[in-house]
Amino acid sequence: MRGFLAEEVPTRDESNTNLYRRSIRTIDDNFIDETQPITQRTTPTTAGSGIRCPYIRFPRWCFWLWLLLLLALLATVLGVGIGLGTRKRSIYESCSSQSICMNNAVCTGGYCLCSTGYFYDSTLGLCITEVGIGRSCSADNQCFTNALCTNGICRCITNYYPSPTTGRCAL
Fold first, then answer.
1. Positive or negative torsion for Cα 65, 71, 72, 73
2. Is residue 124 classed as helix, strand or coil in its secondary structure?
3. Cα 155 to chain center, whole Å?
4. pTM of the model
5. Which residues span the membrane (predicted)?
6. If 0-12 CB within 10 Å is exposed, 13-18 middle and 19+ buried, where does residue 141 land?
7. CA dihedral sign of residues 115, 120, 121, 124
8. Cβ(87)–Cβ(80) below 8 Å
């Protein structure tokens, strides 16, 4: 296996000038060939002088931290567009448009209400499909309008009968 091992060490010489020593080693299987260190003299430069500043090592953890912060900012900005941003309004909360009400709910008279054919299940906090006449139920609010849950089955209330055209209880 062939590889390289680099080492960078900042040092100072006798005249107290900053030196930058870089040594490179070649690795072949179990043999290490050391090359001579390369020493560069560095001097402070001012901005705009046309001379490049010496190489400064940037810590990896700092790079990952900046990347993570950038991704968090991007997610915050784009989150609203993919549904992670604003919460949908629940039943009986004020609204101004259909899009801010929860699923299967509409904005009616300035409040979110379940759409036709749906009822609000307070245990789930959702608008779910109403149960038709003759179907099994567990509570009155699951049945269509003018129907009650009697003995676990949705049935029309007194003076109402199942309509053959709509399947709902009508006079």
1. positive
2. coil
3. 45
4. 0.41
5. 63-84
6. middle
7. positive
8. no
How many CA atoms does the CB half-sphere of 95 hold within 13 Å? 21
Return the H-helix or E-strand segment holding 60: helix 60-79
CB atoms within 10 A of CB 130: 20
- In 3D space, the residue among 93, 78, 169 whose CA is nearest the CA of residue 131 turns out to be 169
Q: Is 159 left (phi over 0), alpha (psi -120 to 50) or beta?
A: left
- Give the total residue count for the chain: 171
Q: 142: helix, coil or strand? A: helix
d(CA 167, CA 156): 11
How far, CA to CA in Å, does 69 sit from each of 65, 73, 74, 84?
6, 6, 9, 18
Q: Are 2 and 25 in contact (CB under 8 A)?
A: no
Question: What would the pLDDT profile of 120-144 be if each residue is shown by its tens digit?
Answer: 887 788 888 888 888 898 888 888 8
Per-residue model confidence (pLDDT) at position 144 = 84
Q: Which residues pair with 41 in a beta bridge?
A: 19
Is 19 within 8 Å of 39 (Cβ atoms)?
yes
Phi/psi region, residue 138 (left: phi>0; alpha: psi -120 to 50; beta: rest), is: alpha
Angle at 69 between CA 66 and CA 71, to 5 degrees: 110
Residue type for position 41: R
